[in-house]
Write a structure and sequence with these properties.
about 30% helix, single chain, two-stranded parallel sheet, Rossmann fold, 5 strands, 4 helices, alpha/beta, elongated
Length: about 150
C-alpha cells in the first residue's frame, strides 16, 4: 500500500474551524458548545460553514472548532501593535465589551488535544479568563511601554 493511502476500513476525519462568533453577541451570558447560534452575519456564516463540514460523508468524524481571535503579534495584535507603537493605543468602542481570545500556544495545544483524543462535534477554543477590549489594549500598551488613551 502506498504511503498516505488507506484501505476501505480507514476512518475519515475532518477538523473544521470557524469562530466563537458562532454565538453572536450575547453580553453577560456564559456560553458552551451547546449554546444556540446567534443571528449576526458572522454567526450565520459559522452555521453555514459547519453545515458544509457536516457533509464530509457517511461515517466521517467531524470536529468543528469555534476559535477565538489568536492573541499573537502576527494575529489579532498586528494592527494594535502598530497603533500602540505610534502612541495611538486606546479603547476600541466603549472598551468594556468582552473580547474572547486565545494564545497561539493554547490554540495549537487545543487542536492537538482534539486530534489526539479523536474528539468529534463542536469545540470552543478560548482563553481561560474573559478579557475586555480595554484589558487587551492596556496590557499591550504596558508591555510596549506606550500610553493607552
Amino acid at each position: 500500500m502506498a504511503s498516505g493511502s488507506c484501505s476501505i476500513t480507514c476512518a475519515r476525519w475532518l477538523i473544521s474551524a470557524s469562530a466563537v462568533g458562532y454565538y453572536g453577541s450575547v453580553p453577560g451570558q456564559v456560553l458552551t458548545e451547546a449554546s444556540p447560534p446567534g443571528n449576526t452575519f458572522l454567526a450565520r456564516l459559522c452555521v453555514a460553514w459547519e453545515a458544509e463540514a457536516a457533509l464530509a460523508g457517511p461515517g466521517a468524524r467531524v470536529a468543528t472548532l469555534r476559535t477565538a481571535p489568536i492573541v499573537h503579534p502576527e494575529g489579532v495584535l498586528k494592527p494594535l501593535i502598530l497603533l500602540t507603537r505610534l502612541g495611538l493605543g486606546g479603547p476600541i468602542g466603549r472598551g468594556t465589551q468582552v473580547w474572547p481570545w486565545i494564545s497561539l500556544e493554547d490554540e495549537v495545544r487545543g487542536i492537538r488535544h482534539v486530534i489526539d483524543s479523536q474528539i468529534a462535534g463542536p469545540v470552543n477554543l478560548t482563553g481561560p479568563t474573559p478579557a475586555s477590549a480595554n484589558d487587551l489594549g492596556f496590557a499591550l500598551a504596558v508591555r510596549m511601554n506606550r500610553p493607552f488613551g
